[in-house]
Amino acid sequence: MTGSYGRGLLHLAAAVDQVGAFDEERHVELVRLAESGGLDFVTLDGRFGWAETDALAVLALVAPATRRIGLVPVGTSPRTTVAHLDQAGLGRVGWWSDESDGSDGSDAPGPSQGYAVRVADATEGTARRTVARYADVAVVRAASSAQAAAVRDELRAEAVAAGRDPDALRVLVSLMVDLGDGERAAEPGHGGGGPRQTVQGPLYRGGPVDLAELIATWHGEGATDGFHLVPAEPRRDLERLVNGTVALLQHRGLFRTFYPGSTLREHLGLARPADQLAAP
Predict the structure, then answer these.
(1) What is the mean pLDDT of the chain?
(2) CATH 3.20.20.30: does it fit domain 4-268?
(3) How would you class 154 by CB atoms within 10 Å of its CB: exposed for 0-12, middle for 13-18, buried for 19 or more?
């Protein structure tokens, strides 16, 4: 297991997906809550049951109501993403797309950060070579720190093989989190015992304190650069995440208490692409 990155910055992101009817005010509330905790970015996937609009349109509405947090719609093209979001959320744009789409994101200029930050799922082994070559953020669903560390090491090695600086790639573990039962749910296979693998992916069920310990431990071991957390119940779990888990990490000096810059690349500690990306 690679341990050196434990000295690096911890990165945190959260999904703000909601099942059911579209509610603009609720989305604004959730993203503002995430921003109050200093999270790097939020993701929004429009495939979660509301058809009145899409993730891109929602985040375009959210952008003027926020100031710093990164905004990452899922499943959009880079050029469309920037066209809709970069004017409203200058320099805070990312895009999460299928690694097989063949684009490296270089057709999506953003005036404040070079190019929109590219996020891609690297859970499947077949995707990792492409993700390591072009992505800024690789998301991995892992149920243990050893599993996460193995994938992170593989991605960094693939980045080196592609001529990239491996430190130009952030690897985040994606976990579903259910904080509904507080610390009482910290049992083997959950909470203090770590995530449990489910058909939907790794699930953490427990309280904010144990989740903070898990995040601190995995990051300190060098297993991951941070976490992408998917609340089981958006409003309840995101509030407990920000006011509980994140507050504890901040108190321990492990996570930022303010945004040092204004762009998503600055939040992630990434250089502008012109300075870091290998030629295709």
Answers:
(1) 83
(2) yes
(3) middle
